[in-house]
Amino acid sequence: MKKIALIFGVTGQDGAYLSKLLLKKNYIVHGVKRRSSSFNTERIDDIYNDLHNKTNFYLHYGDLTDSLSVLKIIKKINPNEIYNLGAQSHVGVSFEVPEYTANVDALGTLRILDSILTLGMKDRVKFYQAGTSEMFGASKPPQNEKTNFYPRSPYAAAKLYAHWITVNYREGYNIFACNGILFNHESPLRGETFVTKKIVSALCKISLLGKGKLYLGNLYSKRDWGHAQDYVVAMWKMLQQKKPKDYVIASGKQYSVKYFVNLICHILKIKINWKGKGINEKAYLNGKVIISIDKKYFRPTEVDSLLGDSRKARKELKWKPDYNIQSLAKDMVTQEIKNINGKK
Ligand code: NAP
Ligand code: G4F
């Protein structure tokens, strides 16, 4: 019998990679998408087929803020595995919409867990919660499963609730529920407003089309960046273990935002010069300013340094990433160039 998976957040970066992975593993995959006034299935259009064209991939309308839709979809699909990847996932935006972020990211998780319980499905379903290194926030690196949490944004605080409610339903009701504590992971499918994708898009346009300018915030925060394609494998592996546990997933290397800019310039073979300090720091290409700092991209509270220690996952899940920062950056640039050339 084929396993049935249900993915909340199927239209996002990770949802797209996870869907492809599970389909390859011969699962029947159901995804929850939100009603939107414009198309929001671009990342999964290559695998999406509606009922007129049968495959093992199905989409359903639903929303994590709507308990009824969550409960009804879980009842109807009767899945073996549920992956909760749905979230208002932008840290900066969470300062603008803190209540909505809490509703989706914190209470949305509770809605799924309690539906599993209410529907009497706890012995059938395994649950994955998309936790984040942002929960470590101001805690000193390197961070692992034993590091104290110290959230620094409404997003991180909401995800911390989701983390502990997942632990609580596991301990209180014996639900097979795991928290993946994933460090930053990127890809060509990354949302346009996250820093890596924003840098790649702008620098490719500047390099290929000779137009545009890039405005950034804090150049000196450090992140542990991996490739989403590697990280969805870890999600799946967590649900294949005998016991449900929580795992840190990370590359174990950290780089600054400025390093990432310089790396992309290196791949594109463009030579930039940095001048100035603080908010006056700028990057020049052939004497012209192509990167400036805009205060609006600074956050009220920043997470300065994330560096993951994923030894537990590497040992118990036998997980390790194929990509490093260089191959990740190359993949993002290659795809971006294809996109630009396709649109020319
Ligand atoms: P993403 O690209 O922003 O995708 C988020 C998904 O959640 C999208 O499908 C989005 O739908 C959906 N969503 C948003 N609000 C929803 C709602 N009210 N009800 C139902 N679905 C909703 O994020 P990602 O990078 O794939 O990340 C996947 C998950 O991992 C998220 O929970 C994120 O917080 C977490 N995480 C990500 C990283 C990372 O570095 N990428 C690291 C740690 C944890 P639309 O397409 O309609 O917007
Ligand atoms: O790309 P970012 O927006 O990612 P951030 O805040 O680390 O969050 C991402 O990773 C988390 C895992 O740790 C996920 F949970 C979360 O859902 C999301 O996927 O920003 C990275 C860094 C930050 O320090 C930010 O201040 O880049 C800095 N930055 C500098 N200029 C910028 C910009 N970030 C954005 N988004 N845009 C800028 O212009």
Set out the fold topology.
Elements: E1 4-8, H1 13-24, E2 28-33, E3 57-61, H2 67-77, E4 81-84, H3 91-94, H4 98-118, E5 126-132, H5 154-173, E6 176-182, E7 185-186, H6 195-209, E8 214-216, E9 222-223, E10 226-227, H7 228-238, E11 247-249, E12 255-256, H8 257-268, E13 272-275, E14 282-285, E15 288-293, H9 311-316, H10 325-343
Parallel strand pairs: 1-2, 1-4, 2-3, 4-5, 5-6, 6-11, 7-10, 8-15
Antiparallel strand pairs: 9-12, 13-14, 14-15
Overview of this structure, please?
With 344 residues, the chain is an alpha/beta fold. The protein has two domains: 4-188 and 226-253 and 305-323, Rossmann fold (3-Layer(aba) Sandwich), CATH 3.40.50; 195-220 and 256-302 and 333-343, UDP-galactose 4-epimerase, domain 1 (Alpha-Beta Complex), CATH 3.90.25. It has helices at 13-24, 67-77, 91-94, 98-118, 154-173, 195-209, 228-238, 257-268, 311-316, 325-343, and strands at residues 4-8, 28-33, 57-61, 81-84, 126-132, 176-182, 185-186, 214-216, 222-223, 226-227, 247-249, 255-256, 272-275, 282-285, 288-293. It has a seven-stranded parallel beta sheet, with helices on both faces. The radius of gyration is 20 Å and the shape is globular. 44% of the residues are buried. The mean pLDDT is 97. It binds NADP nicotinamide-adenine-dinucleotide phosphate and ligand G4F. Residues 89, 91-92, 132-134, 183-184, 193-195, 198, 216-218, 221, 223, 257, 297, 299, 302, 306 line the site of ligand G4F.
